[in-house]
């Protein structure tokens, strides 16, 4: 057991000999516990240096070793659901040294990635895709006459999503050779919610493996388990047997999230992911600024205080969305629906229909999962729901899978949808209030992290579709949509430009644009969103409809994948820092 995160590289002689799973297969089974110890030591050291996902990898250390020991990877297929637990897998598959670069610009990807290694069979990041992807691979192999093993490792949290059950349901029908391993650590990021989690936990407590088997056997899987997945003596024979079976196999293992590092075992929520450990002797970082998420958290608590109809819904992202305080204070009005974005949205629709005022707190990237529900169950039915869309725009180290770059594009085509882009924390509170008071579907999108730090003293709804002129300048006007206002301000001051905080993508402040076009030959739209179909496109369409001939420069995230890096580096790469904006505008001026 470790009690501290080593800040100097630990000695790992056995691990150092493993350059690929082929080396691992040279070891005797008796050497594997030693290897697991060294792997954990290195993992602790490495994540301490870089920050990143923490508890999940520690929990699957034995499983990762056992899988590569018994499978013939990379010929056999191994798919890690979500992929946040794949650090030990990266270490054992030739990326030990590179792990010290994970999540950094130019370094290893935060999750498995097909282009990074032949051992990464499927790119992940979003959850609950592993069973479907694995089944697809198993069926493709069968049709091509190939005999390869296919294994999907899925957590109990990821198993709560409908998509996982869609895959299980279909697998039974095909009879494909597929092994699904349920890594049951009784945790999602938060405590795992819902009937399935309770069922698994209860059956384990009562040692009723047979009851759990019934659930998966009903889906025509051959069930084995539960076995202790942190114990090689139980894990290796169970895994060997499951791999030898034909047709859909299901192995249920139990593990401890954060296994081997005492503080993480005790606080798996706090240790889901960590920031990098500052070297001893570094000055302590001064008081942290409130994040946009925490401002949302405060706003919704205030709202719930005043309005008994307020309910909050989160698909398993309570901590990240700033809902912890709400969940404790308004227990009855708080709904963590587990990883179930589609359900979260239609649940909100049902609640709104029956007179509640649901606020769905959801990351932009995960809202992609609930798009049909948004159109069919909310918008067409004209239901009154507020979407608090966090992690909108570039999110930094989690990279392209988690970037929230598309929500404006996919929301603005929905009739009557209000879309708001606060430029700072104060505006966030005011626009949340605006969306809450609007009768119909409304979305407020805001980024990861903190903004300018100006918190609202009092909160009031803003007039719908009204922008605000911040600076009168010459020749060109920046139409700012969202949190890049500080960068826009620097550019506007340096180049003497007009600056408008647009606040609303929809309804767009057409009157403001009508005024600007007369004395600004160049308009510049600025957004932390893809340039394809974003706020710039909304403005462009309006200019076109009115036959305005002004030049339009649309600044936003370019039409390519933006890799993991810090958010600042990503903004710079996209030309969305102040010097990038100044250069782009100067070019045209
Ligand atoms: C579609 C989707 N929704 C939400 C998330 C955020 N998320 C990442 S890991 C995680 C918890 C997963 O729990 P589990 O599968 O049990 O893995 P564990 O961390 O317990 O090992 C969540 C909610 C996600 N990655 N994808
Ligand atoms: C793997 C995953 O989807 C989450 O753990 C995600 O990395 C959380 O992101 P935030 O740190 O922005 O909450
Ligand atoms: Mg879990």
UniProtKB/TrEMBL annotation:
Pathway: Metabolic intermediate biosynthesis; 1-deoxy-D-xylulose 5-phosphate biosynthesis; 1-deoxy-D-xylulose 5-phosphate from D-glyceraldehyde 3-phosphate and pyruvate: step 1/1. Its cofactor is thiamine diphosphate; Mg(2+). One of its GO terms (molecular function) is 1-deoxy-D-xylulose-5-phosphate synthase activity. SMART domains: Transket_pyr. Its EC number is 2.2.1.7. Pfam families: DXP_synthase_N (PF13292), Transket_pyr (PF02779), Transketolase_C (PF02780). Catalyzes the acyloin condensation reaction between C atoms 2 and 3 of pyruvate and glyceraldehyde 3-phosphate to yield 1-deoxy-D-xylulose-5-phosphate (DXP). Keywords: Isoprene biosynthesis, Magnesium, Metal-binding, Thiamine biosynthesis, Thiamine pyrophosphate, Transferase. PANTHER family: 1-D-DEOXYXYLULOSE 5-PHOSPHATE SYNTHASE-RELATED (PTHR43322), 1-DEOXY-D-XYLULOSE-5-PHOSPHATE SYNTHASE, CHLOROPLASTIC (PTHR43322:SF5). The lineage of its organism: Bacteria, Pseudomonadati, Pseudomonadota, Gammaproteobacteria, Oceanospirillales. Mg(2+) binds at residues 156, 185. PROSITE patterns: TRANSKETOLASE_2. This is 1-deoxy-D-xylulose-5-phosphate synthase. Thiamine diphosphate binds at residues 84, 125-127, 157-158, 185, 261, 341.
């Amino acid at each position: 057991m470790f009690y501290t995160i080593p800040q100097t590289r630990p000695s790992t002689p056995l691990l150092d000999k493993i350059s690929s799973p082929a080396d691992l297969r040279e070891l005797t089974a008796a050497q594997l516990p030693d290897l697991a110890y060294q792997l954990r030591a290195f993992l602790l050291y490495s994540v301490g240096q870089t920050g990143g996902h923490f508890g999940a990898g520690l929990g699957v250390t034995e499983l990762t070793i056992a899988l590569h020991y018994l499978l013939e990877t990379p010929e056999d297929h191994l798919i890690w659901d979500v992929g946040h637990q794949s650090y030990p897998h990266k270490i054992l598959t030739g990326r030990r040294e590179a792990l010290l670069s994970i999540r950094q610009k130019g370094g290893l990807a935060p999750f498995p990635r097909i282009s990074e290694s032949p051992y990464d069979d499927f790119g992940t990041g979003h959850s609950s895709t592993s069973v479907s992807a694995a089944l697809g691979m198993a069926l493709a192999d069968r049709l091509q006459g190939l005999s390869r093993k296919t294994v999907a490792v899925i957590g109990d949290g990821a198993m709560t999503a409908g998509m996982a059950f869609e895959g299980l349901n279909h697998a039974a029908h095909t009879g494909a050779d597929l092994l699904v391993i349920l890594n049951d650590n009784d945790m999602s990021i938060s405590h795992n919610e819902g009937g399935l989690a309770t069922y698994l936990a209860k059956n384990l407590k009562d040692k009723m493996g047979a009851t759990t088997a019934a659930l998966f056997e009903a889906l025509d899987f051959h069930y084995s388990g539960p076995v202790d997945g942190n114990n090689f003596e139980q894990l290796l024979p169970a895994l060997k047997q499951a791999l030898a079976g034909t047709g859909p196999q299901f192995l249920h293992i139990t593990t401890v999230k954060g296994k081997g590092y005492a503080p993480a075992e005790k606080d798996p929520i706090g240790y889901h992911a960590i920031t990098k450990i500052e070297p001893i002797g570094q000055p302590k970082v001064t008081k942290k600024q409130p994040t946009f998420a925490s401002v949302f958290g405060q706003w919704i608590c205030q709202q719930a205080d005043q309005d008994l109809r307020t309910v909050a819904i989160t698909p398993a992202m309570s901590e990240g969305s700033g809902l912890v305080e709400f969940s404790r204070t308004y227990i009855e009005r708080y709904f963590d629906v587990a990883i179930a974005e589609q359900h979260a949205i239609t649940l909100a629709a049902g609640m709104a229909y029956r007179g509640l005022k649901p606020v769905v707190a959801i990351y932009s990237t995960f809202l992609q999962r609930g798009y049909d529900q948004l159109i069919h169950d909310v918008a067409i039915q004209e239901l009154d729901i507020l979407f608090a869309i966090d992690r909108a725009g570039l999110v930094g180290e989690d990279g392209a899978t988690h970037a929230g770059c598309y929500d404006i594009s996919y929301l603005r085509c929905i009739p009557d949808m209000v879309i708001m882009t606060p430029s700072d924390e104060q505006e966030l509170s005011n626009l949340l209030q605006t969306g809450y008071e609007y009768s119909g579907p409304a979305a407020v999108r805001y980024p990861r992290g903190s903004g300018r730090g100006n918190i609202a003293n009092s909160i009031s709804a803003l007039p719908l579709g009204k922008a605000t002129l911040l600076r009168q300048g010459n020749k060109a006007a920046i139409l700012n949509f969202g949190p890049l206002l500080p960068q826009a301000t620097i550019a506007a001051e340096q180049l003497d430009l007009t600056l408008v905080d647009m606040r609303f993508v929809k309804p767009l402040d057409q009157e403001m644009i009508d005024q600007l076009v007369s004395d600004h030959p160049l308009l510049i739209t600025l957004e932390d969103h893809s340039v394809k179909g974003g706020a710039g496109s909304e403005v462009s369409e309006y200019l076109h409809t009115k036959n305005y001939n002004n030049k339009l420069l649309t600044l936003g995230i370019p039409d390519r994948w933006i890799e993991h890096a810090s958010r600042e580096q990503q903004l710079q790469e996209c030309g969305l820092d102040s010097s990038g904006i100044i250069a782009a505008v100067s070019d045209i001026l």
